Amino acid sequence: MNETAGPAVLAEGLVKHYTGREGTVEAVRGVDLEVSTGEVFGFLGPNGAGKSTTVRMLTTLLTITSGRAEVAGVDVARDPDGTRRRIGVALQEAGLDPRQTGRELLILHGRLFGLSAPEAAERARELIALVELEDAADRVIKGYSGGMQRRLDLAAALVHEPEVLFLDEPTTGLDPASRLTIWEELRRINGDGTTVFLTTQYLEEADQLCDRIAIIDGGRIVREGTPARLKADLRARRGGDHEPTLDDVFLDATGRTRARADGEVQEVTA
Amino acid sequence: MTATIVLGKRALREAIRTPDALFMTMFIPIFFLIVNTGQAAELFPSESTDFLRGQGYGAFQLPITLLLAASFGMAALFLVEEIEGGYFDKLRAIPIPRYAIVLGRLVAEGVKCVVIASVIVLIALPFGITIASGVFGFILLVGLTAFWGVVYAGFMQLVALKTRSAAATNSGGLIFFPLLFLTPNFVPRDMLTEPMEIAATLNPVTYLMEAMRSLILDDLDWEKILPGFGVVAAMGVLMLALTVRMIQRYD
Q1: Which residue of A has its CA nearest to B95?
Q2: What whole-number distance in Å separates Cα of residue A89 and Cα of residue B91?
Q3: Strand segments (E) across B77-164
Q4: Contact of B129 with B62, CB cutoff 8 Å
Q5: I need a labelling partner for B85 at 20 to 30 A (CA). Which of A187, B74, B91, B227 fits?
Q6: Residue B218 belongs to domain spanning
Q7: Are B62 and B36 spatial neighbours (Cβ–Cβ below 8 Å)?
Q8: Residues B180-214 pLDDT 10s
Q9: Alpha helices in A17-116 (DSSP H)
Q10: Residues of B whose CB is below 8 A from A85
Q11: ipTM of the complex
Q12: Chain A within 8 Å of B21 (Cβ-Cβ)?
């Protein structure tokens, strides 16, 4: 793990265009990123900003229109299999095979990553304990709760001890208790030296977990830095006594403002 | 190869865990075998109908029953379910040849078709249907059925990969399905009306059906058997080439 000396993730001028009947859509318009080894990096942005598209390019699931990317020192476009050996991926909406048991799924992933049958079974046992699914491990996944599916998805992404773990909105739709459990697991995984690249819509999550964050809007990075630094910058620009939150940074960066109506805070596009 | 086998075993487990789908795969073709035989058996008494070679009309109907059963494979629907649910992307993010994801399902489909075809033939035997070409002919018959099942499932997987939609994949089945019926499935080709005979002659499935029928009604007649294997081999090569191309370009 973490054999790479350089950045864990490096993107230079990353662009993704989709061409369809209605013309060309520029989903990502020149993203530059550098994530250090061992970091928890938060990638934030409104819906449709280009977060998932960027993650899908970095994880070899989408071809790159132009620009280049390296993950764990491997060029994503030139050596996709080399990249896949070094990354773990848990995408939005825990994609799992509902007809397998949790244990079968983890053993399957172990076998596909080249472990022998006994090695895969042992690794599955370790991961089941790690994500605390011992009681459910031999039940089919279809019966798992959302939180259990997320934890299993996370375990499946860790089967081969990846150097970089990509998590695309890992806590979306979870109840607060399940979210906290995922946070604890992420901290533990990161504590073991795995770089974590996390997209999230929850700014509190980013504030709690991430060493650094980048905010993407309209396919471009509009802010990047540590949460504390971004908040300090905003305070310096705005002045006054109000201590900005990451929500304020996000709204400022994406050109959105808050409006109060009937006691509720609403987000309004500026 | 390991990845294909590992994923094939998973697909077999999946099939075993969906017995309702397996039941329908068996039930509908057997239902049509019974209904079609019941409706037409008196029209074609075995004693006076040359093309039956002394067997009952059920033996003549058995090939379409087997082809129908092999064409009810669930591989494409399970694949599109995984595409829609996101597990397909999880598999694509693993360093295995991407074609293994679809080939694994096809391997399982082949195994499943061997079992289903064997069971259907074994069910047919007590009703007076015999395999005139013997045990070797039975193996060839089951093999042809399984190859067809794999080819058909492969083309359906192409629809699934192209459309990424369960509804469209279901509709895709309706496009291929008529091929099974533009064949001499009720009477031999030379007894069809001229337009139907032309359509059946142009339809590659006809040669597959005639090979299967030959294995049931005749001794080993390679002139009829080999074109059947030729059709599944040619269609199989085409299907594999298109599948590998499509999944490599899947974005």
Answers
A1: A81
A2: 10
A3: none
A4: yes
A5: A187
A6: 2-248
A7: no
A8: 889 999 999 999 999 999 999 999 999 999 999 99
A9: 51-58, 80-86, 102-112
A10: 95
A11: 0.87
A12: no
